[in-house]
Amino acid sequence: MQWRHRHLISLEDWTREELEFFLGQADYMEELMNRPIKKVPALRGKMIVNFFFESSTRTRVSFELAEKMLSADVVNWSTSGSSVSKGETMRDTAWTLEAMGADAVVIRHSAVGAADYLARKLHRASVFNAGDGTNGHPTQALLDLHAARRRFGKLEGKRMAIVGDVLHSRVARSDIQAFSKMGVEVVLSGPRTLMPLYHNELGAAYEPDPKKAVAGADMVYLLRIQKERQEEGLIPSIDEYHRRYGATEELVALADANAVVMHPGPINREVEIASSVADGDRSIILKQVRSGVAVRMALLYLCLGGVRN
After folding, report:
1. N or C terminus of the chain with fewer C-beta within 10 Å?
2. CA-closest candidate to residue 298, choices 138, 187, 154
3. Does this UniProt record's set of keywords contain Transferase (predicted)?
């Protein structure tokens, strides 16, 4: 198929056909990762700038590995000590990067819409959203899709329970978009104080009782709890949250016998997930991390390089 996307801002306008095609490309990239020499010249001569306004380990390193495996030239642009810290606008910084020859910019920013803003201001370079505020994290959703499909083979008709702080989660929003398009029923659970009022508009049902939400689910997805939520009074205490909503072995046992446990990382052990569950047989958390590299390789290749038919 002809690939029509130059940027990745969100998955809202992706079709199911495009998602299926993309996952096939990611499968191929994962095969490359299994080779003794994990490098191909697909993006040789391309310059990619990783422009992270927020700290990140998994996303930034995953993008960097993907870029280097495709032989791109990589620039990690730090805002501390740069012109941004001296008052230069993001727009002017981006134009500077493009003038220097950047073919793509990977951006992570605390402001909703930052990636979209950048894509509209740049004239030639592609923009990849690595997380914008509480709005979205599309590459996380793509890697979640890839890891789940690798386990199940087919996602149509599956059921996914997303448990935790949906209100502040960009991951949840992107996952709902992606998994729903693939025919997955998504149900949300968590404290009402951490649930958006417009959850129905997200395309997912809300079940306040986590036991009912997880019962029979094929995928149990735990969202990271940020401990400052306790300070804001949105949850009574970390211990109480874990007792009520944490992925204990007892809670996960209510899911389908072949269900998997997922988490975007980093993990707060004994908060949203028990160590025995995170390290258990049902967990595909490390497979998600591996899928992250393959998915980002596929994304960069399709948007900057070409298409494998």
Report:
1. C
2. 138
3. yes
pLDDT of residue 62: 97
The SS3 call for residue 233 is: coil
For 232, the token pair is: 């804001």
CB 219 within 8 A of CB 183: no
**Is the model's pLDDT at 254 over the cut of 60?**
yes
| 5 annotated ligand-binding residue | no
**For the chain, how many residues are written?**
309
Residue 105 token pair: 């910019």
- Residue 208: pLDDT above 90? yes
Question: Residues 146-189: pLDDT tens digits?
Answer: 999 999 999 999 999 999 999 999 999 999 999 999 999 999 99
Consult the annotation and say whether 59 binds a ligand: yes
191 is in an annotated binding site: no
pTM over 0.85? The answer is yes
Give 194: exposed, middle or buried? Use CB within 10 Å, 0-12, 13-18, 19+: buried
Roughly how many angstroms between the first and final C-alpha of the chain, as a whole number?
7
Q: What is the C-alpha to C-alpha distance for residues 304 and 98, in angstroms, rounded to an integer? A: 15
17 φ, ψ (degrees, to nearest 5):
-60, -40
Q: Is 140 annotated as a binding residue?
A: yes
State the Cα–Cα distance between residues 35 and 31, nearest whole angstrom.
Answer: 7
Neighbours of 234 (CB within 10 A): 18
170 among annotated binding-site residues: yes
Phi, psi dihedral angles at 183 (to 5 degrees): 85, 20
Residue 187: strand pairing partners: 161, 205
Nearest-angstrom CA–CA distance, 144 and 150: 10
| Separation CA 286–CA 265 (nearest Å) | 10
Phi, psi dihedral angles at 149 (to 5 degrees) = -70, -35
Domains parsed from the chain with CATH numbers: 16-136+289-304 (3.40.50.1370), 138-284 (3.40.50.1370)
